[in-house]
Design brief:
The chain has 462 residues and is of the alpha+beta class. It has 19 helices and eleven strands. The C terminus is likely disordered. Bound molecules: protoporphyrin IX containing FE (HEM).
Length: 462
C-alpha cells in the first residue's frame, strides 16, 4: 500500500510552512503532487491526505460509514471549549441523534423569522459610526455576528445577563483569534492553571462565568412557557429524539458553545471579505446597489436573500478565500483499506477534502484568483466543486443561517452607507486560528449616508 505523493520538504518543514502560511503550503504541494497528496502536517507527524479533485471529494464525503468514518474524537482539541457532548466531538449514532435534534432549528420558517433581527443588528452596529469616521470592518462584523448568535441562538436580548454574556463570549472568542493565542489548545502541556493572569487560568475563569450564565438561563427557561419563543435554544429545549428524550442541561450548554464557536468567527470573516471585495471593485458595488434598490424602499428580508447578483457575490466571496480550508477528517476503519484515485489508503489514515484548493481549480473556475461573481450566474457548480460548508454527515449545521446573514448584513450596509476601502495594498488571506481570514482588519471609511436613518431598510421593519 502506498500513500499519495508528499511534498519534497521534510515533515517538520512542511508543518512549519502549513502553520505559518497555509495557502502557500497548499499551492506548493498541489504544484508538486497534483490533486491528491500526503500532507505531513498532523500531530506527531501523522500523515493527512488532502484531496481537491471533485470526484475524490465526493467519494470521501458520501461513503457509507463502514468504509470511512467521520469520528468526532479527531477534533478532541476543542473539548475544553465545547465539552464532551458537542455535536463536533460525537460520532456514530450519538452524532446522528444530536444533528437530528439541532437541524430543525436552522431551517424553514424558524430561520426566516431572524431576517428582521439580522438587519436591525447590522444597523445598530453600523449606526454608531459618524460620517468621515475610519473604522475596521472586521471588529464591526464580529460584533454583528456575535449579537446574532446571542439573540437568535441563545435567545438573550437585553438586561444584565445579556450584557455579561456579550462581554464574556467576546473575551472567550478572542482566545481563538490567532494561532499564538490558541496554542494552549494545540499543546495540552500549556493547559496549566497558574492563576487568573496565566492564559489557561484566564480561559477557565471566563468559561466558568459563561457556564453560570448559560445554566441560569436554561433553568429559567425550564420553568417558563417557551411556546411563543423562536430562538434556537428554546427550539433545542423542545426537541425530542425518537424515544421521546430531550437534551440535558449539559448537552444544551455544550451545543450553545459549539454554535458560538463554529458560527461567530466564520461568519464575521466572510462578511469582512464581502465588504472588501465589493469596495475593491466599484462596478460590482454599483451593480449590487442597483439590484438591492430595485426592491424599493422597504424590502422584505426574504426578497433580499433571493436576489441573484447578491447571491453570486456572496458565493464568490465564499469561493475565493473559504473560511474553512478543509472538511473535518474522514478515517479509514481498522482492518480495511480504502481505494481512492488509484491509491489503496491504509487503515487509520485521515482524509480531508481540501476546500481551498477545490475552489482554486483552473479547470472549474477559470482565472481562479479573480473575484468574478458572474461565474455563479453563468454556471451551476456541483456540491463537490463548491463546498464552503463541507458536505456529507458533517456538513455545516449553520450553513443556511450563515448565508442568510451574509446577504442581509451586506444588503443593509450597502443600501444605507457609502463606504470607501482605505486599504493601500491588496489584502491577502492568512491563518487565523484554524481558519483563513484577511491579513488586516479591512480599514474602511464612512463617506456618507445613502438613506436617512429614519427611512432605513431595517428601521422600518422593527
Ligand atoms: C460563513 C460561515 C460558515 C462557514 C464557512 C462554515 C463552514 C463549516 C464547515 C466547512 C464545516 C465542516 C463540514 C464538513 O466537515 O463537511 C462546518 C461544520 C459545522 N458548522 Fe459551520 N460554517 C459557518 C457558519 C456556521 C454557523 C453560523 C453555525 C451555527 C450557528 C455553524 C455550525 C456548525 C456546526 C455545529 C458544525 C459541525 C457539524 C458536525 O460536526 O456535524 N457554522 N462549518
Amino acid at each position: 500500500m502506498t500513500l499519495p505523493p508528499t511534498p519534497k520538504a521534510p515533515a517538520w518543514m512542511q508543518k512549519a510552512h502549513w502553520v505559518a502560511n497555509p495557502v502557500g503550503y497548499m499551492e506548493s504541494a498541489k504544484r508538486q503532487c497534483g490533486d491528491i497528496f500526503t500532507a505531513k502536517v498532523g500531530p506527531q507527524g501523522t500523515p493527512l491526505i488532502y484531496i481537491d479533485n471533485p470526484q475524490g471529494i465526493q467519494q470521501i464525503l458520501t461513503k457509507d460509514t463502514k468504509e470511512l468514518t467521520a469520528p468526532g474524537s479527531v477534533n478532541g482539541l476543542l473539548q475544553p471549549l465545547i465539552g464532551d457532548y458537542s455535536v463536533i466531538l460525537l460520532d456514530g449514532a450519538s452524532h446522528k441523534r444530536q444533528r437530528q435534534l439541532l437541524m430543525p432549528s436552522f431551517h424553514g420558517e424558524r430561520l426566516r423569522s431572524y431576517g428582521d433581527l439580522i438587519c436591525n443588528l447590522a444597523q445598530q452596529v453600523m449606526g454608531r459610526f459618524s460620517v468621515d469616521a475610519s473604522f475596521f470592518a472586521r471588529p464591526a462584523m464580529q460584533e454583528i455576528s456575535l449579537l446574532v448568535i446571542l439573540q437568535a441562538v441563545f435567545g438573550v436580548t437585553q438586561g444584565e445577563r445579556y450584557e455579561r454574556l456579550k462581554d464574556l463570549t467576546s473575551q472567550l472568542m478572542d482566545f481563538f483569534s490567532s494561532t499564538a493565542k490558541s496554542s494552549f489548545l494545540f499543546f495540552p502541556i500549556l493547559q496549566q492553571n497558574l492563576g487568573p493572569w496565566s492564559p489557561w487560568g484566564r480561559f477557565l475563569h471566563v468559561r466558568e462565568e459563561i457556564d453560570k450564565l448559560i445554566y441560569a438561563e436554561i433553568s429559567d427557561r425550564r420553568q417558563q412557557d417557551n411556546s411563543q419563543r423562536t430562538d434556537i435554544l428554546s427550539l433545542m429545549m423542545s426537541a425530542t429524539d425518537e424515544s421521546g428524550e430531550g437534551m440535558s442541561d449539559r448537552e444544551l450548554r455544550d451545543e450553545l458553545l459549539t454554535l458560538l464557536f463554529a458560527g461567530h468567527e466564520t461568519t464575521a470573516t466572510s462578511l469582512s471579505w464581502a465588504l472588501y471585495w465589493t469596495h475593491r471593485y466599484p462596478s460590482v458595488l454599483a451593480q449590487l446597489q442597483e439590484e438591492i434598490a430595485s426592491l424599493g424602499d422597504h424590502p422584505d428580508p426574504m426578497q433580499i436573500i433571493r436576489l441573484p447578483y447578491l447571491s453570486a457575490v456572496c458565493n464568490e466571496t465564499l469561493r475565493l478565500y473559504p473560511v474553512a480550508i478543509l472538511t473535518f477528517p474522514r478515517v479509514v476503519p481498522e482492518n480495511t483499506s480504502f481505494h481512492l484515485m488509484g491509491y489503496d489508503i491504509p487503515a487509520g489514515t485521515l482524509l480531508m477534502g481540501c476546500i481551498y484548493l477545490a475552489h482554486q481549480r483552473e479547470d472549474i473556475y477559470p482565472q481562479p484568483k479573480q473575484f468574478q461573481p458572474e461565474r455563479f450566474l453563468e454556471r451551476q457548480f456541483s456540491a463537490y466543486e463548491f463546498l464552503p460548508f463541507g458536505g456529507g454527515v458533517r456538513r455545516c449545521i449553520g450553513a443556511a443561517l450563515a448565508q442568510m446573514e451574509l446577504k442581509l448584513v451586506l444588503a443593509t450596509v450597502l443600501s444605507n452607507y457609502q463606504l470607501v476601502l482605505a486599504e493601500k495594498k491588496p489584502v491577502r488571506p492568512q491563518r487565523r486560528g484554524v481558519t483563513l481570514a484577511p491579513e488586516t482588519g479591512i480599514r474602511m471609511k464612512l463617506a456618507g449616508l445613502r438613506k436617512q436613518p429614519s427611512s432605513t431598510l431595517a428601521a422600518t421593519r422593527v
